[in-house]
Amino acid sequence: MKFEDFSVIDLVEGIKNKVFTSEAVVKYFVQRCEQFKDLNAVIEVFDDVVEKAKTIDERIARGEKLGLLVGVPVAIKDNIACKGKKMGCASKFMQDYVSPYSATIIKKLEAEDAIIFGRTNMDEFAMGGSCEKSCYGACKNAFNSCKVAGGSSGGSAVAVAAGLCPAAIGTDTGGSVRQPASFNGVVGIKPTYGTVSRFGLVAFASSTDQAAPITKTVEDNELILSIMSGKDINDATTIDNAVFDEVDKQAYKIGICKQLKDEIEKLEYYDNFKKVLAQFEKLGCEIVEVDVPHIEHSLACYYIVTPAEAASNLARFDGVKYTTRSQEAKNLEEVYVKSRSEGFGLEVKRRIITGNFVLSSGFLDAYYKKAKRLQGLLKREFEKAFESCDVILTPTTPGEAFDIGGKSQDPIAMYLEDVFTVPASIAGIPALNIPFGKGKNGLPLGYQLMGPEKREDMLYDIAKMFEKQTKVEGGIQ
Ligand code: GLN
Fold this sequence. Notes:
CATH superfamily of the domain at 3-228: Amidase signature (AS) domain
CATH topology of the domain at 3-228: Amidase signature (AS) enzymes
Distance between the termini: 18 Å
Number of helices: 16
Order of helices and strands: HHEHEHEHEHEEHEHHEHHHHEHHEEH
Bound molecules: glutamine
Largest sheet: 11 strands, mixed
CATH architecture of the domain at 3-228: Alpha-Beta Complex
Number of strands: 11
Helix content: 25-40%
Strand order of the largest sheet: 1-3-2-4-6-5-10-11-9-7-8
C-alpha cells in the first residue's frame, strides 16, 4: 500500500480496524525517509518507533481502548523536547543535548497513541525563512531539490509533502509553519497565541511563538491541533480554545485588506490570487474590503520585538548548561564569550545583537517600546476589521519557493518573505495556509486565511469547503 497517499484520519481508521498494522505503516515511512534522505528533511528517525508500533498493534489485538492518533507516526521539529531524545535546534551549539523531559505537546500526542517518529530539519533556533541555516545543511523543497524548503519548519513541511511522514509538528513565530507549508503545498496553521503550550519548546520569541501541525488535509490539521491545544499548568500564557470546527455557516465574508492591495496586485502570481477569490465567490462567499491601517508596519514591528525576545531567551545558552563549551576558554568570561561566539550561527548572532540594541538604554523608547505600542494598535485594528468580515485573505508568501542560496546572503530580502505572515503573529490571531495552484516553476502557491482570536473553527470550516471544491477542480494534488 502507498501509505504516503493516506491522510492521518485514514491511517487511524485502517490501523484501528486492522486493515493494516501500525508496524507496517511505521516501517513504510522509515523506508521512505531512507529513500529520500537527500531532501534532508528528517534528520533522525527515532530508534524505538518500530517497537512502539508493535506494542500498539498488540494493544489493538487485545481490544484495548485506543487514542485518536493510534499508531500514526508524527515527526517533530528539532526544537521540541522529547524525553531521552536529542534536541539540537539545528544548532551546532546544541548538537549533543539530550532532553530529560518531554514537551507538553509530546505528552498530549502520546496520550492519543501517536508515535513520535523523529526530528525534522529547521533554521537554527527557528530564525529564518528557508531552512538553509541549519547545522545539518539545507533542507530541499519537496517539488524541486534546487529550491528552498521554506522555514524555519522546512523539514516538517517537506516531510509531509514528500510522504516521509503523514504529519509533522512545526513552530511558527512569524510564519515558520505557514511559509514552508505554502512552499510545499501542504496545510499549516499558526493558532491563536496561547492555544498550544510552549512548555518544552525552544522558542526564540515567546510572545508570538506557537507549535502547530503540518498535514496534507485540513481535517488532519484540525484533529491534531485540537489534541495539542489546551491550558497547561507549566505555561501561564495558555488559554482554553476549543479549536474544533463546530460552525455551520454558509456565506462567509472574506476580507481583503485595503492596505495590502497594492502589494498583492504587484505580485507575479496575482492572477492566481484572483482565481482563489473566484473560488470563494463560487462557494457563496462575499468578498469585502477591510481596513487594517497600520498593517504595513507589522514587519518592522516583528523584527524589533522578536530579536529583543531572542536576545533575552538565548541568554541561557552560555556554554555552561545545555550547550557545548569552547575548548579555548580559560576563565568564566571566556566560557560565555567563546562558547557563544563559536556556537551560534551568523543569523542568530545578528538577532541577538539587534535585540540587545533595541533594548539598550537610550534606544528602548525609540524602538522596543514603540514597537510594543504598535503591536497593541495592530491587535485593535484587526479586531475592528473583523467587525466587517469573518476572515481576511492574503497570499501566504510573495511568490513560490526561491533558489537555494538565492537570498541567504541578503537578510532583508529574507525578512521580506514574511510580509504576509507576520501581521497575524504580531496580533496573536490564528492564520492558516491552504494550497492552491502552482507558479511558473511548477512549485506550489499558498493562501492565508486570518481569523479573529480563537476562531480556528471558522478557518477550518472555510478551508474544508475550499479544499473540497478545489480538489474536484484540480487544485494542487
Ligand atoms: N522567517 C521568520 C523569522 O525568521 C519566521 C521565523 C519563525 O516563525 N520561527 O523570524
